[in-house]
Amino acid sequence: MSPGRKKPISILDSPAPAAAQSLFGLTNQQLVGTLREFSEPAYRAKQLSEALYRQWDEDLAEISTLPKSLREAMTGGGYQVGLPKIVETFRSVDGTERYLIAGNDGQTVETVWMPDGDGGEAGDGSDAETDLRRATICVSSQIGCAVNCQFCLTAKLGIQRNLTAGEIAGQVAAVLKRHSVRIGQDRINLVFMGMGEPFLNYDEFMAAARLLVEEVGIPESRMTVSTSGIVTGIQRFAGEKVRPKLAISLNAPNDVIREQIMPITRKWDIAEIIQAVRQVPLRPKEKITFEYVLLGGLNDRPGDADEVSRLLRRANLPLKVNLIVWNPGPGLPYRMSDPEQVAEFQERLRENGIPAFIRRPRGRDIYAACGQLKRTTEIKPAS
Ligand code: SF4
After folding, report:
1. What whole-number distance in Å separates Cα of residue 217 and Cα of residue 213?
2. Radius of gyration over alpha carbons of the chain, in Å?
3. What are the distances in angstroms from CA 69 to CA 31, 44, 60, 74, 283?
4. Which of 102, 190, 203, 283 is deepest in the core (most CB within 10 A)?
5. What is the DSSP string of 37-57?
6. 107 or 346: which leads in pLDDT
7. Helices H, strands E: what count in the chain?
């Protein structure tokens, strides 16, 4: 610019307002570090953690265990609680609720509450007690998904972005708060089977799982993560000390059919996936779940059941199969299997020595069922 000429005024010249920093999502150690900035002792981190992860406070001003002066100083320093907010709720005739939950940038992600579970993760008989309040929360790990399974509506969104650990764990906290869940008493299962492929957002997903175990207090044995078969993720998962149970989204008796419906098979075939799964050290009584979405006439024939049985017997793993009747969605070129076909498929697996359960479809009428999460809002939200 020549001397004497005035620099044009640009919006970039004004100091940018400090971005708000969310506390929700920080580990205890990170909270200790944050509080040190305010010359506060480490025990305050415990109080803050209790407020964030057990009381689910939504505003620093609500945290009465912290001195008022500290709450004001933190607010002035740009800190906020950052618990994600439920912005829309859809309620199914079967009691299932689907939520649109806003992340840090206001973009929404989907989370599902299924009272009494869905007969899948709880379908091994371990949840037989009736005196407990039970529910399963289905959690998203990304907005959209890049994996492009052909039977899944989420795939139509493409991948929009990864969620942070705070946004992943925050979905759970927002839903627990809505239902006044009593941690340690009510029986809550978490399934990371919502929008996205958790193993393509590995670090944030695992950080969220650790937070949920260590800070929120949900046992890892009540959590299941499902992957489409991201072998590098399964390999890392095998080395985790604290981790959910593992489910593999299989959906086909062989690579030829799997490739048609799950293009990711071109990168890692079934044999490579099973090889990786075999490296995961299992806890006593732990089983690997194989998810199998039944698509009418494509992978639901008796011969397919026999081929799946042979495949899984060869894997020689403690396992079970969850059968999922495909949930229709606009623009998806499949049909639902007949109920007799589903029953026969299950029977064949069982006769072949493979424990198989049929997952009850939940919340189909509100687009909350498996593979239907696409932020559909063309239905009436619950009041
Ligand atoms: S089924 Fe899961 S991995 Fe496949 S496209 Fe849908 S969200 Fe992604």
Report:
1. 5
2. 23
3. 17, 13, 11, 9, 47
4. 190
5. TTT--THHHHHHHHHHHTS--
6. 346
7. 10, 14
Tens-digit pLDDT profile for residues 97-110: 999 999 778 899 99
Pocket test of ligand 1: the residue of 110, 143, 154 to mutate, having most ligand atoms within 8 Å of its CB, is 154
The reply to whether ligand 1 has any atom less than 6 angstroms from the CB of 159 is: no
Q: Which residues pair with 291 in a beta bridge?
A: 249, 322
Looking up tokens 């939950």 gives 101
> Can you give the pLDDT at residue 248?
98
Strand-pair partners of 90: 98
Pocket perturbation via mutation, ligand 1, pick of 112, 153, 197, 227 by most ligand atoms within 8 A of CB: 197
Confidence of residue 266 (pLDDT cuts 50, 70, 90): very high
The strand pair at 187-192 and 223-227 is best described as: parallel
Give 122-178 pLDDT, tens digit per residue.
444 444 444 468 999 999 999 999 999 999 989 989 999 999 999 999 999 999 999
Specify the residue for token string 């985790």.
240
Beta carbons within 8 Å of 181's beta carbon, 6+ residues apart = 133, 135, 188
CA of 152 to the centre of ligand 1 (A): 6
| Whether this model's pTM surpasses 0.70 | yes
The Cα–Cα gap between 288 and 291 comes to 10
Residues 6+ apart with CB under 8 A from 361: 118, 324, 325, 327, 369, 370
Task: Give the distance from CA 52 to its chain's centroid.
Answer: 20
Instruction: Report the atom number in ligand 1 closest to the C-alpha of 153.
Output: 6
Percentages of the chain per state (helix, strand, coil), in multiples of 5:
35, 20, 50
In whole numbers, what is the pLDDT of the chain averaged over residues? 89
Residues annotated as part of the active site: 110, 370
